[in-house]
Amino acid sequence: MDLIQTDRLVHCFKKLVEIDSISFKERAMAEALKKDFAQAGVLLCEDQANESYGSEVGNLYGYLPGSNGEDPLLFSCHMDTVEPGIGKKAIVHADGKITSDGKTILGADDLAGMSALLEALHILQKNHLPHRPIEILLPFAEEAYVKGSRFFDFSKLKAKEGYILDLSAPIGTASLQEPTLITFTISVYGKAAHAGFAPEKGIHAIAAAAEMIRRLPCGRMDEETVSNIGMIHGGIGINIVPEKVVMKGELRSYSHDKAMQWMEKIRRIALEGAALYKASVDVSSQIELTAYQIDPAEPIVRHFEEACRKEGIKPELTRTFGGSDANSLNRAGKKAIVLASAMYACHTRNEYTTIEDMKKVTAVILRLMRGAEHENTDALSDK
Fold it and tell me: Which of the chain's ends, N or C, has fewer CB atoms near its CB within 10 Å?
């Protein structure tokens, strides 16, 4: 029997898409979600983590008591979207594909998962189905290196396990591993001089920076580690020996220790490159995400695989070089994995979802919510 109400699911998604919610400006989205989750039986409260960034809203948290005696389980989606995300519209096509009008992103990242989560909660409440205790965490500014969940008070959580609905992959895919991510800024300081009259009196910051880039690792260093210099700015005029250059980059590795070692190597290369030109340099870095890896034998993985199989979906386990709120949860001692949530071509104007895939996500979520009692029942989604 199909308990999923397609019209309700699609209406929810379209409504949420039309709410502007770019990172740090999620107030309207938060207020809408408080109402939507309350109607689905979950009261959301707001923390003050946003005070660290001057964001409009904090993280939202809610708890729904269980009725089957099993342990609590966490589900999480983020509230924010990337840009261009102002004035989004969801266009439903005849084949069930949903896109934007091409002027903005769609926001399926992460509103497809959010809509599926709400639909699953509605089904529990409307049909009085037994279920595990359920916790909901909706962070702000996930797209800005998980700024919201980074400062969430995880001691509030009763659940030891959680599912993050935030992966662009075929339905049935779960990511069990994400990297440490370090951002860094290299500021090179030279000495200005007239490029025509007295270039020898200057210290060429761009030349020093070029030497650093030549030496710095860029691209894939090994199967676990990548690095990139993505921004560079320097000089104020073509007739002036440039006095300052600023370069910004990032480093990702599945091994936290290896990431730290590479960061020290980058720092050393920058110092050596500056010395060759008698320039000075400052290297600052920030650990944005901390690597984690979940054993495929863990119950949280086995339950997900079983839920997929019961829905006729082939489970696939993978890892990703992206980052998510799962990094924050695992760093806090919770076991969390990231599930495919019907979002494709994310962070582009070509982003899309499909009604069928949102229904599949809903069915898997619902089966996970209902726990062991539900493992022997027939599929919920109509395929």
Answer: N
Distance of CA 24 to the CA centre of its chain: 14
| 271 and 362 share one domain | no
Structure tokens at 268: 């050393």
CATH of the domain at 53: 3.40.630.10
Closest CA to 340 of 178, 162, 164: 164
Domain count within the chain: 2
User: Distance from CA of residue 343 to its chain's centroid?
Assistant: 12
Dihedral sign for Cα 13, 16, 18, 22, please.
negative
Structural domain contains residue 363: yes
Flag whether 379 is in a domain: no
Domain that holds residue 184: 180-289
User: What is the DSSP secondary-structure string of 133-175?
Assistant: -EEEEE-S-TTTTSHHHHT--GGG---SEEEEEEE-SSTTEEE
Rounded CA-CA distance 175/195 in Å is: 53
- Residue 100, pLDDT > 80, answer yes
Distance CA(185)–CA(241), nearest Å, equals: 22
* 21 contacts 15 by C-beta, under 8 angstroms: no
**pLDDT at residue 378 greater than cutoff 80:** no
> Looking at the whole model, is its pTM more than 0.70?
yes
In this predicted structure, the answer to whether residue 334 has a pLDDT above a threshold of 50 is: yes
**8 Å CB contact between 90 and 100:** yes
Cα separation, 149 vs 350, whole angstroms: 28
